[in-house]
Design a protein that fits this description.
heterodimer; A: alpha/beta; Rossmann fold; 2 domains; 4-stranded antiparallel beta sheet; 11 helices; 13 strands; B: mainly alpha; 0% strand; globular
Chain lengths: 306, 316
């Protein structure tokens, strides 16, 4: 990758006996939205907190905007913005005061009024932090993360614990940042979040990156998992359907035949030909493309939220 | 510098929006003031002046409670970690706490001095420069003690236990509540190792004996040194993260902050200056009362004479 804004190589971090990060490596280009996808405890937060300069790595090389977070934390902090997990602001701090306070820490500052408008918090400018809803608190956290017009924005589980409607609001905000060509690194254990928001994803499990690429690339790598679910007018056998061209496996359940295929178009053509020859009829056909969840299950044998 | 000032302003704003702050920083100190001046001193100006030092001392010493509790609360709620990702430093966080506490304590002290002068007609408030210096250095040094407590305790529960353990000897042995002269000789010698003793004693001397900063130099220097040590230690032990626990070993570093008062205590125990000054100040305060009592007693003894005469006459 030419001139990555963020470079991580063989990163490790240990807490006592627990090896949280075990040799993670990746790069992020300027203007890219990069996601670290993995279950809780996979090492995503430890990784992101090392990049933010909040924790020291045990070994490995890290560069964010050209700075080593361990050696140049002060310089680095002027260049990054972040929303963190398990954080809060004082209950009696007003929204506008919070923005002004955080803006005052930086050399480069954005107009707090513009941020209030952008994040739909104008009406709440004089409200205490303690009076805000979960979604408003998260929008304020995002506004604060952008108060210094950062080069890289770190979003650690930005929608965790939020209801679906608020989550969609946050997605809209992040998509807007993406349109502004902000470099974003986000951690998530929500598949739909990674698929919708990220240009590239690294799937993290047990402190290691087990797969990396665009969501499309990762899913294509798991193309064997594309499923065609069909209902037929008359019964057929799994063994016969399995032998069709382009089909790698077939299992029937409650009258639905699930064909696993590597080349879905070819499988459909051979299925239609087979049904014509057998004088059978197709009642319904559904194609289920693989999700990142399928990729994760394929790679780890577990579901993301297990 | 900007970080420091904005953080200080935030801490002052937050404190002024907190009802508990008004209770502990205004209602309670003024409660002590009126209890000491109105009830213990019975409004008598000289006695009010004598008790003003302990009243101001209590106000200043109380600094460490609020500071330690707020910092631990900020850490437990994850507020500190939000600041950690900004260019604000641990030193900014610590010094702003001390400065905000100073800015919030000083008005109450000024109000107490004003009320002593206007309401209880204390004729002379003593050496105001010395009072200012002792209150200032005392407030920042006891505030820094609060920062150390916040640094060495892992939970709010631990913080409150340690606060109580420190608060009780500070108020009972320093002369802030129980008169120093009433303490037994051995307890007086223990009290000589407490910073609070020098604060209360210094304030008493500044108010009652009109001592200038030169005469209080030892107390001022010791408190300043203590401030530097406690602030340095708290910056070394400062933790942004709630899950970052402090090791048992680090807690022993706190002992290092006691060095200035261990040395001062040894020196004072040898020359007996503080004990002698406390006794002489009290004697001078009691002298007019005693002479007044003697004057009152005089007629009574004279009254007794005729009785004795008459009894003699009777006997005769």
């Amino acid at each position: 990758m030419p001139n990555p804004v963020l470079h991580v190589e063989n990163l490790t971090k240990r807490y006592g006996d627990v090896e949280a990060v075990r040799g993670i490596s990746f790069e992020v280009a300027e203007g890219e939205v990069f996601g670290l996808l993995g279950p809780n405890g996979a090492g995503k937060t430890s990784t992101i907190e090392i990049l933010e300069g909040l924790r020291n790595a045990d070994s490995g090389a890290v560069s964010v905007c050209g700075y080593d977070p361990q050696r140049n934390p002060e310089e680095l902090k002027h260049e990054i913005g972040a929303t963190l997990q398990s954080t809060a602001l004082p209950e009696k701090l007003r929204v506008m005061e919070a923005l002004r306070l955080f803006a005052s820490f930086y050399k480069r500052r954005r107009n707090p009024d513009d941020l209030l408008k952008r994040f739909g918090l104008e009406e709440k400018r004089n409200a205490f932090y303690g009076q805000l809803s979960g979604g408003q608190k998260q929008r304020l956290a995002l506004a604060i993360a952008l108060v210094n017009d950062p080069k890289v924005v770190f979003l650690d589980e930005p929608t965790a614990g939020l209801d679906p409607q608020v989550r969609r609001e946050i997605y809209d905000v992040i998509e807007e940042l993406r349109r502004d060509r902000k470099t974003i690194v986000l951690t998530t254990h929500y598949i739909e979040e990674a698929e919708r928001l990220c240009d590239r994803v690294a799937i993290v499990d047990h402190g290691k990156v087990i797969a990396q690429g665009t969501p499309r690339e990762l899913k294509q790598a798991s193309v064997d998992k594309t499923r065609i679910e069909v209902r037929l007018a008359r019964e057929d056998s799994d063994e016969t359907l399995k032998l069709l061209e382009g089909v790698s496996d077939c299992r029937s359940l409650n009258g639905v035949y699930v064909l696993h295929c590597q080349r879905p178009p070819q499988a459909i053509v051979s299925l239609v030909k087979h049904l014509e020859a057998q004088n059978n009829e197709l009642i319904s056909l559904e194609i289920a493309t693989p999700s990142l969840e399928d990729v994760f299950i394929e790679l780890t044998g577990r579901r993301l939220r297990d | 510098m900007t970080n420091l000032m904005t953080l200080t302003r935030m801490r002052v704003q937050l404190a002024l929006r907190n009802k508990m702050f008004f209770f502990f920083s205004l209602v309670m100190p003024l409660g002590f003031f009126f209890l000491y001046s109105g009830v213990f001193a019975k409004g008598e100006p000289d006695s009010v002046a004598y008790l003003l030092g302990p009243v101001l001392g209590l106000n200043v010493m109380g600094s460490f409670w609020g500071l330690s509790a707020t910092l631990v609360m900020f850490r437990e709620q994850g507020i500190l970690r939000r600041f950690h990702v900004t260019p604000a430093t641990a030193t900014d966080m610590l010094i702003s706490s001390v400065l905000a506490n100073y800015a919030l304590t000083l008005p109450t002290v000024v109000l107490e001095l004003f009320l002593a002068r206007t309401l209880f007609h204390v004729p002379n408030l003593g050496n105001l420069l010395s009072i200012f210096l002792l209150v200032s250095i005392g407030t920042v040094s006891f505030g820094s003690l609060g920062l150390v407590i916040a640094s060495v305790t892992n939970t709010m529960q631990e913080t409150q236990v340690l606060n109580q353990l420190l608060w009780l000897p500070l108020i009972f042995l320093s002369g802030a509540t129980i008169p120093f002269t009433s303490l037994s000789n051995s307890v007086k010698h223990i009290a000589l190792f407490l910073p609070a003793t020098y604060l209360v004693h210094g304030l008493k001397n500044a108010i009652v004996n009109d001592y200038g900063p030169g005469k209080l130099l030892l107390a001022l220097v010791s408190l300043t040194l203590w401030f530097v040590l406690t602030l340095f230690l708290s910056s070394q032990l400062f933790r942004w993260e709630p899950e970052a626990k402090i090791g048992r070993k680090a807690k022993f570093y706190v002992a290092a902050t006691a060095i200035p008062f261990i040395l001062l205590g040894i020196w004072e125990a040898k020359n007996g200056r503080v004990i002698a000054e406390e006794n002489s100040t009290l004697q001078r305060l009691e002298a007019p009362h005693k002479s007044g009592k003697q004057k009152d007693a005089q007629p009574k003894s004279e009254d007794l004479k005729p009785d004795s005469d008459s009894s003699t006459e009777d006997s005769q």
